[in-house]
Write a structure and sequence with these properties.
Layout lengths: L23 H14 L5 H4 L2 E9 L2 E4 L1 H14 E13 L4 E11 L5 E12 L6 E8 L7 H17 L6 H6 L3
Parallel strand pairs: 1-6
Antiparallel strand pairs: 1-2, 3-4, 4-5, 5-6
Length: 176
């Protein structure tokens, strides 16, 4: 992938652990992922992902553009407030690893939840695009039959409930 000139990233101040250095492309990918976790998706940011990429956290296992796009746009639907409390990139390898702490406030209920995550960003060597993002709450992702069933059901259901813009114009109309 070329430079991120055509991908507007809001989170450009990337905190890194001592000794960790990111190249410009890694900064673009990390910044875009931070934007996504902040509920600031856009089609241009998601263009940094492979079509068959995967996003997984303890409640989702979204495979393919339709499913992972809906997950990211769904944050705007589900939460009235999303506040990044801290982040630090701890490894610039593949995967890129980052500690992230975020506070979410559920729309309509006012319930708040702070999630401390270990994020892993896997990058496809040939395309330079994101092929997988793992969001490990408190450092893990449950891997049982029931947990996997629930994650897949969620990943399949969210795209039916959350619309994803079809083009840049629709994206702009939503403020993205």
């Amino acid at each position: 992938m070329s430079s991120g000139d055509s991908v507007p990233i809001e989170n450009t101040n990337i905190n890194t652990a001592s000794g960790v250095k990111l190249d410009e492309h890694q900064k673009l990918l990390v910044g875009s992922v931070l934007d996504l976790f902040a509920g600031r998706p856009s089609l241009k940011k998601l263009s940094l992902w492979k079509d068959d990429a995967m996003f997984e956290d303890p409640i989702n296992k979204a495979m393919g553009r339709q499913q992972y796009s809906a997950q990211w746009y769904g944050l705007q639907t589900a939460f009235s407030e999303i506040e990044r409390l801290s982040h630090e990139v701890t490894s610039s390898g593949n995967p890129i690893k980052m500690d992230l702490k975020t506070r979410y406030k559920v729309k309509g209920l006012g319930t708040e939840k702070t999630i401390a995550s270990v994020i892993q960003i896997f990058v496809d060597h040939s395309s330079g695009k994101i092929e997988k993002v793992e969001d490990k709450w408190d450092g893990n992702i449950p891997d049982s039959g029931f947990a996997n069933f629930f994650k897949r059901a969620n990943a399949l259901g969210v795209p039916k409930a959350v619309s994803v813009p079809k083009n840049d114009e629709e994206d702009r109309e939503r403020g993205n």
